[in-house]
Task: inverse folding
């Protein structure tokens, strides 16, 4: 009985040892498998990892090309967007009539891509602006406590009533959206004016 | 017309051949440094372009793209033109005499 047990344990050990040997890295297996061909196709992994000056120079040339294409692409896209002529059709701002004084509402105007913010001041007047900060296009939000529009990215501040820059890095006022209050308290967006002459929307 | 390397030691204990090898390496090193500097400049130009595009500063976009294009042309000229002189061929294509 004991001899059978020892046989069994030995065979289990042999199987485990075989599994462990198979669990070693593929690298050694590949080396072993390709050993007969090493003479015909010699290679050295260590040398392969080295980058020559010529290769690095070529890599820098490709990088230079990519950087140029990137700069041209960004500039081209910006110029295309500048030349895009937007059609301003009056649009009702849903939910504006229910807006309580001292709060804000986000909407999209004139297209679905253009986010905007509607603010109802404490005195009940409505003001609306494009939500993109004029510094680096971060979305501005209404800061209720101080009653102004703020950009969270670089701490720029805008006046709610005029859209002018109060502080921070933004170089020009926010794009203003023209509003009209119609019967029943409905608020309609009629058009969009650029914050400065350079920027057209 | 061909150039012949001197293998006898000259001033400073170096042969002409070893001087040529050192010169060759120096030119390669210079090319590499120039290319890295141009890449850094182009990276800066790209970031300025992105910033100008986001801020709708359209006036500076064209000069930035032109600057990047100039950098790219310099890179191409370094890669294809400003090569170190070959140790085997002269600039006009003649094969040099091998060192004895």
Result:
């Amino acid at each position: 009985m004991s001899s059978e047990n020892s046989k069994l344990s030995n065979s289990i050990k042999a199987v485990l040892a075989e599994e462990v040997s198979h669990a070693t890295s593929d690298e050694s297996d590949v080396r072993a498998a390709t050993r007969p061909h090493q003479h015909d196709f010699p290679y050295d992994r260590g040398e392969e990892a080295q980058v020559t000056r010529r290769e690095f120079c070529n890599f820098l040339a490709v990088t230079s090309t990519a950087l140029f294409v990137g700069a041209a692409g960004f500039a081209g896209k910006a110029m295309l967007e500048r030349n895009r002529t937007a059609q301003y059709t009056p649009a009702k701002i849903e939910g504006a009539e229910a807006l309580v004084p001292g709060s804000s509402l986000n909407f999209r105007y004139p297209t679905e891509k253009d986010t905007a913010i509607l603010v109802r001041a404490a005195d009940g007047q409505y003001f609306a602006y494009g939500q993109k900060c004029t510094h680096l296009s971060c979305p501005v939000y209404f800061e209720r406590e101080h009653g102004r529009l703020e950009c969270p990215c670089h701490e720029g501040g805008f006046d709610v009533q005029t859209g002018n820059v109060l502080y921070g890095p933004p170089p020009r006022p926010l794009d203003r959206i023209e509003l009209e209050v119609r019967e029943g308290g409905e608020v309609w967006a009629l058009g969009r004016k650029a914050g400065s002459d350079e920027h057209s929307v | 017309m061909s150039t012949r390397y001197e293998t006898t030691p000259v001033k400073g204990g170096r042969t002409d051949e070893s001087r040529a090898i050192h010169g060759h390496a120096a030119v390669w090193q210079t090319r590499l440094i120039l290319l890295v500097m141009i890449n850094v400049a182009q990276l800066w130009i790209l970031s300025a372009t992105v910033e100008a595009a986001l801020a709708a500063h359209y006036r500076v976009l064209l000069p930035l793209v032109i600057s990047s294009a100039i950098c790219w042309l310099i890179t191409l000229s370094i890669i294809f033109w400003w090569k170190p002189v070959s140790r085997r061929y002269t600039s006009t294509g003649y094969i040099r005499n091998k060192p004895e």
Summary: The two ends of chain A are 92 Å apart (CA to CA).
